[in-house]
Amino acid sequence: MNIENDILGRYLNHEKIEKAPEGFSEKVMTLIRVEKSPERVKSKFRKSIMIPLISSAITLGLIVFSLLYSSPAENPAFTAIKQFFSYISIKLPEIKIDALSGFSIPAIVIYVAVGFLALSLFDRVLHRFFHKNGR
Amino acid sequence: MDYKGDIFYIGQVLDGNINAFTHIVGRHKDHAYNLALRICGNHEEAEEVAQDAFMKAYRSLKSFKMKSSFATWLYRIVYNTAVSLIRTRKKGVLSLEEFPADATDFIRANSSEEEAEAEYRNSLVNFALQKIGEDERALITLYYYEELNTGEIAEVTGISKSNVKVKLFRARQKMVEIIEKVEKKNLIYHE
Question: Is A13 on the interface with B (CB under 8 A)?
């Protein structure tokens, strides 16, 4: 639509923009300064290194534990733990589907699936922990 | 308006530099005030609406997705704020029935005939604007003063593009009728 050819456009001076009153910007900025800043939530240094620290600690712990657990030397601290674990027998069944000519899902798949579930849950917990205050 | 400039200052504000918002206010205050004034019809309410709109924009700056320009986004806030204010106003605030002056009243000793005529037409348009509904006022202002296209107006007002065209047409018709009525009266008066 051509404003100049428009009947109303001939009356309206579309260049006449009413100016905001003097001091308008200052008033707005004064009001804003008393408001909380909408800045992005900056994670503090301590929080930002927590994730790699925790994962490194867990990894190190698992490595040390596996070394000590499988170590031939008798360590009183680990003997009891070894004994405890020897009482736990975890065996997941192999799934066989006779209708499909004895097609079976090997037990390793079940172990992997359970592992994924456990890791997903762990990830969810960590996510909630690190994002509870932020967006 | 410099689109890239707005994004830069918005980024600055979100990074914690509150003073960067001054640049945003400075760039858009006149257009925001102009829209508010055309909808509300008086300077006090227009100033209140424009200030309110900037405060709301500041508070929800995080949610500005940059799908449209910042100006369009701000106009939407001004429009909604102004329309809400008018709808909560006490009913029974009357606008002037008759245009209170004629063209000769605008000829002042120190102004040219051209300036006087421009001022007369501006007053006449403002008078006609107050005679139509607040959403029609917004459409006229956004189309003629802010020179937005119907797509952008649809984004600001939240109504469909086709509806904008229909409403704009009707608002234009109404205003032309009002203006022509006043002009006719003035002509008769001076004969």
Answer: yes
Which residues have CB under 8 Å from B23's CB, separation 6+?
Answer: B5, B9
Rounded average pLDDT over B17-44: 92
Classify the complex by whether its ipTM is higher than 0.90, answering yes or no. Answer: no
Chain B contact probe: residue of A11, A34, A35, A42 with most B CBs at under 10 A: A11
Q: Which residues contact B17 (CB under 8 A, 6 or more apart)?
A: none
Amino acid code (one letter) for B7: I
This prediction has a pTM of 0.61
The interface residues of chain B toward chain A in range 92-151, judged by CB-CB distance below 8 A, are: 118, 121-122, 124-125, 140, 143-145, 147
Query: Buried b vs exposed e over A20-39: b needs ≥16 C-beta within 10 Å?
Result: beeebbebbbeebeeeeebe
Residue by residue, DSSP assigns A36-61 as PP----PPPHHHHTHHHHHHHHHHHH
- Using a CB–CB cutoff of 8 Å, tell me whether A24 touches chain B: yes
Higher pLDDT, B145 or A37: B145
Mean pLDDT of successive 10-residue segments in chain A (135 residues)?
Answer: 61 77 93 71 64 84 77 64 71 69 73 85 81 54
* A76, two tokens: 């009183």
Asked whether the predicted pLDDT for residue B82 surpasses 70, the reply is yes
Q: Cα(B10)–Cα(A129) distance, rounded to whole angstroms?
A: 29
